[in-house]
Design brief:
Blueprint (H helix, E strand, L loop, with lengths): L2 H17 L5 H8 L7 H13 L3 E8 L2 E8 L1 H25 L4
Length: 103
């Protein structure tokens, strides 16, 4: 899959995963990888961008004596998913039909 297309889809997949509940990096990699291959070195820059755009919020929590960074979706993150589903996804569907030879 094209790297730029994959990057955009990964951002939406991360946000969609966080809609199910707060999570940390390794858990996201484990759950998203079956859909789109992703490594931690790919995930963390995406999470940083999402944090910068205020689509996710971070906090730390102790887990078995270690501090773990958790990510939580924000209202802006939910809006991005809604925008993707109402604007971007229909456009991608039209592009797919065009590529297959339809209109």
């Amino acid at each position: 899959m094209d790297a730029q297309l994959k990057k955009g889809l990964l951002e939406i997949c991360v946000l969609a995963f966080l809609q199910r509940g707060d999570s940390y990096g390794y858990e996201m990699v484990k759950n998203i990888s079956p859909l789109l291959p992703i490594s931690e070195s790919t995930l963390y820059p995406i999470l940083k961008r999402l944090e910068t755009s205020q689509s996710v919020h971070t906090y730390t929590k102790n887990h078995q004596g270690r501090t773990r960074k958790y990510y939580q979706i924000t209202p802006q993150g939910n809006e991005r998913i809604t925008e993707f589903l109402t604007t971007d996804w229909p456009q991608l569907t039209m592009i797919q039909r065009f590529i297959k030879g339809g209109v």
